[in-house]
Design goal:
Layout lengths: L1 E3 L6 E3 H10 L19 H11 L12 H4 L44 H10 L8 H11 L1 H8 L18 H8 L3 H22 L8 H11 L11 H11 L35 H10 L17 H4 L35 H10 L17 H12 L4
Antiparallel strand pairs: 1-2
């Protein structure tokens, strides 16, 4: 049945209206709790996390903070094809808006909580390039009072080298291996709490309302949209393509416009970068992470670890499968894909229409016939997700 919306004289079926409503920001559920982080909603922890997020001393070089790649005025990403900390990485920076709703973090889901994700760049040699001992000493030297008000007493770090951790240089790894297990555990707990504070701050970063959301609200209410909520005929046609013929909403679904799953879409590798198998290796990494939901540093029991317990593994469909990022703000967030392989929205639409074969694994895409006008209509709609 066709239903006249009163929005510019366009018509939508009941099914289309339901899908559009589900994509609207108004459909975003309440901020989910994180039972693995008892400080997730602690204002003092969030305040400390914000301080740490923007502090370039969170790297031994004194040049890299979380905000180096997650720029506050660029949707908490950096516009680069590959993230650049102390060196250039192999993937691009993902935006942070709405990240607290995601059960898996990173393009390959190699971490299962926001606080475990926050720890990973700190030790990455291409990002912050620090060690767990370095961060524990930094907190003790610079934020001891604030830390202890939130997390309790800091351990005695007098016998802990200034630079020691399971990653890093050979000397740093040897220094870590030389520490007794109980000292390693004390450092790990401080390190985990750093991640929990940063995560508490990152939970406050939510998507902003767009013109599409205001249009969807008017459509759902059956009223004429206000001037700042009107979509042009081309944008409405693009919306119909997005939820229909172009099948975009199959993966870019829900109010964050991502299904938080993993898909091989035939995106080509980047010359000169190591092979990237995506979720195939991500499942092994998240299972081995000492800071995962099953680990001793999580503030919950195994009953909270459903995602990890029932994680799909040993499935050929995971090869070169990556998480679709949110499309909110995507029009101003080029280049695209996990390593910035595609430069423009026009090229993205062309890629999905051609459905090229994957270099390994099997793409989920099937060729799609889109006229030039339909391609432009689809792009016109995507731009409504930015303003």
């Amino acid at each position: 049945m066709l239903v006249l919306t009163g929005c510019g004289g366009e018509s939508f079926t009941d099914d289309e209206k339901a899908i559009i409503a589900s994509l609207s920001l108004s459909a975003l559920p309440p901020l989910p709790p994180d039972p693995t982080n008892r400080y997730a909603d602690d204002p003092a922890a969030a305040a400390l996390g914000a301080t740490l997020f923007f502090d370039s001393r969170m790297s031994p070089s004194g040049t890299v903070s979380c905000s180096t790649c997650h720029l506050i005025d660029r949707q908490f990403q950096d516009d680069l094809p590959l993230a650049k900390g102390v060196a250039t990485g192999n993937r691009r920076t993902m935006p942070l808006a709405g990240v607290a709703w995601s059960p898996w973090l990173f393009w390959d889901g190699r971490r299962d909580s926001l606080w475990a994700q926050a720890l990973t760049p700190l030790e990455d040699l291409r990002e912050h390039a620090g060690t767990r001992a370095f961060y524990a000493h930094f907190i003790a030297d610079s934020f001891a009072e604030r830390y202890e008000r939130i997390f309790g007493a800091l351990p005695d770090l007098s016998g802990v080298p200034g630079h020691a951790g399971p990653f890093g240089t050979a000397a740093e790894q040897a220094a870590w291996a030389g520490l007794p297990a109980e000292r390693q555990d004390e450092v790990n707990r401080v390190f985990a709490n750093i991640g929990k504070a940063i995560a508490a701050f990152e939970r406050s970063i939510v998507p902003e309302e767009t013109r599409f959301d205001r249009f969807a609200a008017a459509l759902t209410a059956g009223r004429e949209p206000d001037d700042d909520a009107t979509l042009t005929p081309e944008e409405i046609a693009g919306l119909k393509l997005f939820i229909g013929k172009a099948t975009c909403s199959t993966c870019h679904t829900g109010p964050r416009l991502t299904d938080d799953s993993f898909h091989n879409t035939g995106v080509p590798p980047v010359d000169g970068l190591p092979e990237d198998l995506g979720r195939e290796t991500g499942v092994d990494q998240v299972a081995a992470d000492p800071f995962n939901c099953f680990g001793k540093y999580a503030d919950s029991g195994p009953e909270a670890c459903g995602e990890l317990r029932f994680m799909v593994k040993d499935d050929p469909r995971l090869t070169r499968a990556f998480k679709p990022p949110s499309l909110r703000g995507a029009a101003s967030r080029s280049p695209y894909m996990h390593s910035g392989q595609i430069e423009t929205l026009e090229a993205v639409v062309d890629h999905y229409a051609r459905a090229p074969a994957s270099v390994s694994g099997e793409t989920e895409l099937h060729p799609l016939t889109l006229s030039e006008r339909e391609r432009q209509q689809l792009i016109a709609f995507l731009k409504t997700l930015t303003n």
